[in-house]
Amino acid sequence: MKKHLVTILILLFGGLVLSACRNDDEFLNTAPPKVDLKTEIPIILIHGSGGDTHSLDEIADHLTNDFASSKDELSMSISSNGKVSYQGKLTKDAHRPIIKLGFDKNQASPDKWAEWLHIAVTDLKSRYGFTQMDGVGHSNGGLALTYFAENDSEDKTVPTLRKLIAIGSPFNDLNADDNAGSLDFQKLPAYTKQMTSFMDNKTKLNPNLEVLSIAGKISEEGESTDGIVPTNSSLASRLFVPKNAKVYMEDLQVGDSAVHQTLHETPESIEKVYWFLEKFHSDKSVTKLVSQ
Fold first, then answer.
1. In the chain, what's the furthest Cα-to-Cα distance?
2. C-beta separation of 50 from 105 below 8 A
3. What is the pTM of this model?
């Protein structure tokens, strides 16, 4: 049964497995030149399981072209032994540069991804001087950012995570029974090992962190799921982020377009990502939950 579950995750989470192999030749063995961008805040985009650096191209394209909030982007690939490769480079005129991060082991666990993320952003800080960064993750990419947010909040060798957007991220894994109940839940029937870890380490979150969780629900009347992730699992971040971060907000999308594989590409998701990254500013703590 465990073998079958792994197979399902490989096939369904966050992108096609084959796409992860298509860009190996594009990455450079030599890193791009160092540029002083310490006043800039990059946007780190992280794919879901089975994905690659192109998985969040839709978000990157809109931020760069339609909203003109970003200028310059590059892609990073990191191997299981911690080797970082680059495609593209950033110039001294880069503004809100987009960093598309891909893991060679794109079906590894999100806590392992968080370790590699640490290596990648350490390299980014040493190369560009970044002191802060924002992160957007689809599915397990959002979980990797959450592990990073809890484990690296006080590490001065990496940029401080300022904003975190998790899209369709299964905080309490995939079991429907574990995530049963109404959408206004304040507890869940059962907590997985991963969820327990998030809850146990919640006080390690940066108190200035701002978090947005985006969840999908395909049917208004039927089962609460985006087709893969139970809706309440995507919203389970409400059980450990509020009171430990400055801002916590949720966005629930309902309808046929709210399907897991492309939830990060819907017009609503893209608009919400842009708004939260560029337009939303708060000088006080904010918590806004989805109501049933």
1. 54
2. no
3. 0.91
Helix (H) or strand (E) holding 6: helix 2-12
> What whole-number distance in Å separates Cα of residue 120 and Cα of residue 46?
12
**Contacts of residue 181, Cβ cutoff 8 Å, sequence gap at least 6:** 188, 189, 232
* CB-side neighbour CA atoms (13 Å) of 246: 14
- Per-residue b/e over 51-76, b at no fewer than 16 CB within 10 Å? bbbbbbbbbbebbbeebebbbbbbbb
Model pLDDT for residues 104-144, shown as the tens digit of each residue: 999 999 999 999 999 999 999 999 999 999 999 999 999 99
Instruction: Name 61's Cβ contacts closer than 8 Å, sequence gap at least 6.
Output: none
| Residue 100 parent element (H or E) | strand 98-103
Q: How many CB atoms lie within 10 A of CB 234?
A: 31
d(CA 45, CA 57): 9
Report the length, in residues, of the chain.
Answer: 292
Tell me whether strands 43-46 and 132-138 are parallel, antiparallel or unpaired. Answer: parallel
Instruction: Look at strands 73-78 and 84-87 and give their pairing.
Output: antiparallel
Torsion of CA 252, 96, 162, 16, to 10 degrees: 50
Collapsed DSSP state (helix, strand, coil) of residue 164 = strand
What's the CA gap between 246 and 259, in Å, rounded?
A: 29
pLDDT in tens, 168-224: 999 999 999 999 999 999 999 999 999 999 999 999 999 999 999 999 999 988 899
